[in-house]
């Protein structure tokens, strides 16, 4: 496939802020790409540089083969963007805002915008100043999507949305991919990333630390495990299993972190009467903190 986004040693430094360094990234047309990292890692800087809002200090970036520095206007014509922080004119309504953007983009039919508004439960007729953060976020999503651009770049798109609207948004992302369009979005929510993303890029300290297919990243992640038996058990055989760390025994309950496949654990536990099992996926932040410690030091 052709690349929707391609960067080569993309670097942006400014003031005392860390920025990004030597980011080499390729996002294929038609894929959903999750761009993840802790706060301050460089996600927003990368996005703003891709859109031409910031000039790179070094390296280069292309969107659909267009140089983001020399051809930034052409790039933005092909992109629907939702920034992580955005301001809307307080006195206008969602309808007025969408009509304004439609004129700018030469879009005459707002049918898809109204469909999205209905699906997201967005009120297009109230002034922005009367909307909650979540309802403003819905308007922001609609303005990014309503013209069906070939590339969506969304910075924390589900922030402030209630769970039902988050589900609807993820359905729309799936439909966007089915139409052959590309989605590039940052998120802190592992469950939504796992559900819709084909690949994931992790940025740490301004550097691209890894690009992985989604299933591979999730498979490498550890699990929090709690086993509850019908009586006290000796925790030492469990602590000796490969991948078991930080085991705590409390009478009939064993709690630990598992960094390996659960096969040996299940077989050992089967030698006792097991009355409770918790097998919990870590938060995305926990993966950031420990992922590379258990898969080689990558950055």
What distinguishing features does this structure have?
299 residues, alpha/beta, 4-stranded antiparallel sheet
Write up this protein.
With 299 residues, this protein is an alpha/beta fold. The chain contains 11 helices and 14 strands. The protein has helices at residues 43-50, 72-77, 94-105, 111-120, 133-145, 163-178, 190-196, 214-220, 236-239, 263-269, 284-290, and strands at 3-14, 17-28, 32-36, 58-63, 66-67, 79-82, 151-155, 182-186, 199-204, 207-213, 223-229, 244-250, 253-258, 274-280. The protein has a 6-stranded mixed β-sheet, with helices on both faces. Strands 2-1-4-5 form a 4-stranded antiparallel β-sheet. A 4-stranded antiparallel β-sheet has the order 12-13-11-14, with no helix packed on it. The radius of gyration is 23 Å and the shape is globular. The model is unreliable at 294-299 (pLDDT under 50).
> Which outline best applies?
globular
Class derived from helix and strand content: alpha/beta
What's the total count of β strands?
14
N- to C-terminal distance: 29 Å
Helix and strand sequence: EEEHEEHEHHHEHEHEEHEHEEHEH
The pLDDT mean sits at 90
- Beta-strand proportion: 25-35%
Main sheet characteristics: 6 strands, mixed
Q: Please identify the oligomeric state.
A: single chain
Number of helices: 11
Strand order, sheet with most strands = 6-7-8-3-9-10
Low-confidence stretches: 294-299
- Rg from alpha-carbon coordinates: 23 Å
| Helix content bin | 25-40%
